[in-house]
UniProtKB/TrEMBL annotation:
This is 6-bladed beta-propeller. It comes from the Bacteria. It holds the Pfam family DUF5128. InterPro entries: 6-blade_b-propeller_TolB-like, Quino_amine_DH_bsu. It comes from Echinicola vietnamensis (strain DSM 17526 / LMG 23754 / KMM 6221).
Length: 373
C-alpha cells in the first residue's frame, strides 16, 4: 500500500525534489511575509482572456502539458518534461514552428540527456546534460559544443549575465555538499551556497529552481516557504509564504523520506513551485496537496497594492493550471490546449472573438489573462 501511495504521489508532483526546507540564506535582506490563509481571495473569473496564441503542431512536435518554457525576444523554447526522448522545440513569438533545436541521443548532433536549458535574450541556447555523478554544459549551435564537465549532480542551472553559471543539486546526500554552486565559464568552482546538511535517504527528482525575470534571478526549493534572489554573489530571502495548516512540519526532516512522507501526505502540505515577476505584478505559484487532491493558489502581488489569491484546480479551471510567465503588459501567461480553451470560451463567452481553428492535432495555446478589478 505504501509503495502504491508513493507512486501515485510522484505521478502527481514528479517535478518536486522530495527533500528539505531552505536554510537561512547567506545574506539577509528585507523580506515580505504573506499568509495564504489571511489574504483576500478573488474568483478565477476576475482573470479575463486578453490574447490566445496557438503553437503550430505537427507529428514531429507533439507535446503534453508538463512543459518547461523559456522566452527570448523573438522565440519560444519548450521542453516536454515527460517525453521519453526529450528535445527542445522552438517557435517564433507568432506561434510558427521553427523546428527542434536539440534532442537527446548518441549522435553528433545530439546530447546524452537534457536535464534543463537556458536561453539568452538573443537566442543563445545552453543545455544541462548529465549521467551518473557528472554533468556537462553544452552550447547549442548547428551542433552541440560541450563547454565543460564537472563532478556534481545538478538538477537545474542558469547562466549569469557575466557568463558564469549557477547549478542546483538539492539534498542528494552524500553526493552534494552544497545545494548551489557557482562555476566560471570554463567550469571552475568559484562559489558555494546553501550547505547540504541533510543526511537522510531520499529519492532525487528534478525540478525548476531558477526563474530569471529581466535583471532579477529568483530561486525556489521544494518544500521551502522562502523565495530567494541572487545578487552581488549572495543569496537573499525576499519573500516568505505562510502555508498555515499546510506548512511543512519540523518532524518531516528528522527521518528518511520513505518514513516521513506517508504521514506528511496524510496531513497535507504546501509548496512554492514557480515565481514570475512583471513590471508591477509578481505571481507566486503555490501547490497544495490536501485531502481534496492537488490544488493551486495563484498568489498575485501588486507592487503598489495588496496581494490577492486565486484558487484553481485542474478539474474546474484547467486553462489556468499551468502558469508560465508574465508579459510586458503585466498579463499572466498560461499554457493550455485548444480543446480546454474552447471549453472556457463556451462558458465565459468570447468564442467569436478568439479564433480557434481545428487542426489535425489538439495543439497547445499560449494565453494571456488580465486581472480585472
Amino acid at each position: 500500500m505504501l509503495l502504491l501511495a508513493m507512486r501515485k504521489f510522484f505521478i502527481v508532483i514528479s517535478y518536486f525534489l522530495l527533500i528539505a526546507c531552505t536554510k537561512e540564506s547567506d545574506d539577509k535582506a528585507s523580506m515580505t511575509s504573506i499568509s495564504l490563509e489571511n489574504i483576500k481571495e478573488v474568483r478565477h473569473t476576475k482573470l479575463t482572456l486578453a490574447e490566445a496564441k496557438g503553437l503550430e503542431t505537427t507529428s514531429e512536435n507533439l507535446m503534453g502539458l508538463k512543459l518547461r518554457i523559456r522566452f527570448s525576444n523573438q522565440k519560444i523554447f519548450i521542453m516536454d518534461e515527460e517525453a521519453k526522448q526529450k528535445s527542445i522545440q522552438v517557435f517564433h513569438q507568432s506561434g510558427k514552428y521553427l523546428g527542434a533545436a536539440i534532442e537527446e541521443g548518441e549522435g553528433p548532433d545530439q546530447v546524452p540527456s537534457i536535464i534543463d536549458f537556458h536561453v539568452s535574450e538573443d537566442d543563445e541556447l545552453f543545455v544541462l546534460s548529465g549521467a551518473g555523478d557528472k554533468v556537462a554544459i553544452y552550447q547549442i549551435d548547428e551542433n552541440p559544443i560541450q563547454k565543460f564537465e564537472v563532478n556534481y549532480i545538478a538538477t537545474s542551472f542558469t547562466k549569469l549575465p557575466n557568463g558564469k553559471y549557477l547549478l542546483y543539486g538539492g539534498y542528494n546526500s552524500p553526493f552534494v555538499q552544497n545545494r548551489i554552486i557557482k562555476l566560471s565559464n570554463k567550469g571552475n568552482l568559484e562559489g558555494t551556497y546553501l550547505p547540504n546538511d541533510y543526511s537522510g535517504k531520499l529519492l532525487p527528482m528534478s525540478e525548476r529552481n531558477f526563474y530569471k525575470q529581466g535583471n532579477e534571478l529568483f530561486i525556489i526549493e521544494s518544500f521551502s516557504d522562502h523565495i530567494l534572489t541572487y545578487e552581488h554573489d549572495s543569496l537573499h530571502q525576499v519573500m516568505k509564504i505562510d502555508f498555515g495548516a499546510y506548512a511543512i512540519p519540523k518532524w518531516f526532516w528528522k527521518s528518511d523520506i520513505m518514513e516521513s512522507f506517508p504521514k506528511l501526505n496524510e496531513k497535507g502540505f504546501g509548496n512554492i513551485i514557480g515565481v514570475y515577476r512583471g513590471h508591477n505584478l509578481t505571481l507566486a505559484e503555490c501547490m497544495i496537496q490536501g485531502t481534496n487532491g492537488v490544488e493551486k493558489e495563484l498568489l498575485l502581488i501588486d507592487h503598489k497594492g495588496s496581494p490577492v489569491k486565486v484558487s484553481i484546480t485542474d478539474a474546474k479551471t484547467p486553462w489556468l493550471f499551468h502558469p508560465v510567465g508574465i508579459d510586458d503588459k503585466d498579463n499572466l501567461l498560461f499554457i493550455t490546449y485548444r480543446s480546454i480553451l474552447e471549453q472556457y470560451l463556451k462558458e465565459a463567452g468570447g468564442s467569436e472573438t478568439f479564433s480557434l481553428p481545428k487542426k489535425a492535432f489538439d495543439y497547445p495555446i499560449l494565453i494571456s489573462m488580465t486581472l480585472t478589478s
